[in-house]
Amino acid sequence: GAAAAAAGDLSGRRVVVTAGPTVEDLDPVRYLGNRSSGKMGFAVAERAAARGAEVTLITGPVNLGTPRGVARVDVRSALSMRDALARALGDDLSGADALVMTAAVADYRPAVVSPVKLKKMQGAGGDETSLRLVKNPDLLAEIGAKRATKKPVLVGFAVETGTPEQLVDYARGKLLQKKCDLVVANEARVAFAGDDNRATIVSAAGAEGLGTMSKVELADRILDRVRDVWADIVA
Ligand code: CTP
Ligand code: CA
Questions:
Q1: Does the ipTM surpass 0.85?
Q2: Which residues does the annotated region (Phosphopantothenate--cysteine ligase) include (predicted)?
């Protein structure tokens, strides 16, 4: 909690955070995006830096200022976020002690990106159209599959609609499938709404439901849990 968020308690640690949406271009004027504001990831980056960590923040297009002391890398698509992650983590993943993956990474991208603006089709045949999409790589699952130790500690996020029970079930599935240490689950309606969030933190040990709090406060709670994982590694 707040008392545990002591100044400097994360010093000497390297934390990589991803934030915001990814944006998948269709042509020079159109893209597929999502409702992620970036606020959760920016809050994690801000708090990690304030608590002494060396922080790299890899973000999709958002309207937010860079938190003090944070190295920011701006990206656009899932594939460009993958490149930035590879640079930040290194081939052997030794570049970070923790990766907090708050980004809402697009699951699919247009199969073809047109270099020129697409024109609408004329005549009766143009009344309907469809878009061919191809799957993006799962950035977190790739890193989870590659990771041999707890370096970096991996934190995933899961934004869902549906019942609280489904929320935790999906989060457990993602924890196992992506080989994460923690998955922070929240409801889309709350998560994308503004400055507050209500989350459940799921780990192999169980699910901890948290009350509604600011994204900054939730960031501290998540970082407390990451610090606990680090402490367990030493013990
Ligand atoms: N994620 C990722 N790469 C993707 C999709 C998701 O790294 N291509 C990460 C997100 O950053 C998040 C976690 O995986 O930390 C869960 O994302 P989510 O969209 O909830 O899970 P998916 O596995 O994509 O499942 P679905 O969207 O079908 O619920
Ligand atoms: Ca997804």
A1: yes
A2: 15-235
